[in-house]
Design a protein that fits this description.
alpha+beta; 60s Ribosomal Protein L30, Chain: A; Phosphoribosyl-aminoimidazole Synthetase, Chain A, domain 2; 2 domains; 6-stranded mixed sheet; globular
Length: 346
């Protein structure tokens, strides 16, 4: 079997089968040093305790011509986005970014000025959203890639808070998202098809910015923990794809109502035949998908400055996600979202 014949999620499960026994055998010596593993492979980040804080660690890699294209992405925007992708995972766990380590694989023909601009973008993302770069590695590579590892922290003295996890969905809870969906994938479509800019240049540029310069919901994630939210995930691979991951981890199902999904009104105008796919399967929105009872969600809607939309509910139909249109019919979008082994940026 080849990597191309298996999904990312299936491969992660196989890796987990190998790693988990070793984790158990090495856990006690690490615990003796003052750290204890709480959650390993299978969420947006791993979780471990220390005497003062609960900590998480996450990593993301961006590979040229898979996740980005230098023809339409500046080095500065690329640096920003490479940090944001990991910051978003930290946000989805309700934590604050602390330390970041960067690994670069560099082609020999890349400009030095470009790498300097890359780090300017990274530094700006840390300055605006949290964290600090403390080291890393640079290697020669035929393919340009960036790998970012970020640690996040939740102070233990906040007794009312806890780490958010994709494993805590409960039947009957409301499903919500921050912000709007589909703009990032729409921006990518416009970059691939420049003629689309002519339809509405101002809105096209905003959607392009959503793709090349997204903003993570770090402060929102931290606040959700104080409202009683227990389950969350960032939308990086598409709403339906990421929701299915949550449902699988929580052993539940979900119903999503299409007309309740928040989208930019121009999405329908620019993509009349594709807007549904972009809204529910478009990746890299980096919004937060989370659940809670009516009281919890009301708290979130009243206290977050970011838009919070109720888009559906958690059901007891294990691993089943239904998308319902305005007529009450179940619909099936034409795409299944981002899969790292079956998707390409172009």
């Amino acid at each position: 079997m080849l990597v191309s014949q298996i999904s990312e999620f299936e491969l992660i499960n196989r890796i987990q089968e190998i790693v988990s026994p070793q984790n158990e055998s090495s856990r006690q010596p690490i615990k003796n040093l003052g750290h204890d593993l709480i959650l390993s492979i299978g969420d947006d980040a791993a979780v471990f305790d220390s005497s003062i804080t609960t900590n998480i660690m996450t990593a993301d890699a961006l590979v040229e011509n898979i996740h980005f294209n230098l023809e339409w992405t500046s080095f500065r925007d690329l640096g920003w986005k490479s940090i944001v992708a990991s910051q978003s995972d930290v946000a989805s766990m309700g934590c604050i970014p602390t330390f970041a380590i960067i690994t670069l694989g560099l082609r020999p023909d890349l400009p030095v000025d470009g790498i300097i601009q890359l780090y300017e973008g990274m530094s700006l993302a840390c300055q605006e959203t949290g964290g600090t770069i403390i080291g890393g590695d640079i290697v020669a590579s035929e393919t340009f890639f960036i790998s970012v590892t970020i640690k996040g922290t939740l102070a233990k003295d906040k007794k009312e808070t806890q780490i958010l996890s994709r494993k805590n969905l409960l039947p009957g809870e409301l499903l919500c998202v921050t912000g709007i969906l589909g703009s990032s994938s729409a921006g990518l479509e416009i970059l691939k098809n420049p003629a689309l800019r002519k339809l509405n240049s101002t809105m096209a540029e905003k959607m392009i910015k959503s793709h090349v310069h997204p903003f993570p919901r770090v402060s929102e994630g931290a606040k959700l923990t104080t409202f009683g939210v227990k389950s969350a995930m960032d939308i990086s691979d598409g709403l339906i794809t990421d929701l299915k991951k949550m449902c699988l981890s929580s052993k539940v199902g979900a119903t999503i109502f299409l007309d309740q999904i928040p989208i930019n009104p121009y999405l329908r105008t620019l993509f009349p035949n594709k807007w549904i796919e972009l809204a529910v399967n478009g990746g890299e929105d980096y919004e937060l998908l989370f659940s809670g009872n009516e009281k919890v969600i009301s708290q979130a809607q009243k206290n977050l400055t970011t838009q919070v939309s109720i888009i559906g509910e958690v059901t007891s139909e294990q691993n089943r996600v239904n998308l319902i249109d305005s007529t009450g019919e179940t619909i099936n979008p034409t795409s299944t979202g981002w899969d790292h082994f079956k998707s390409k940026e172009g």
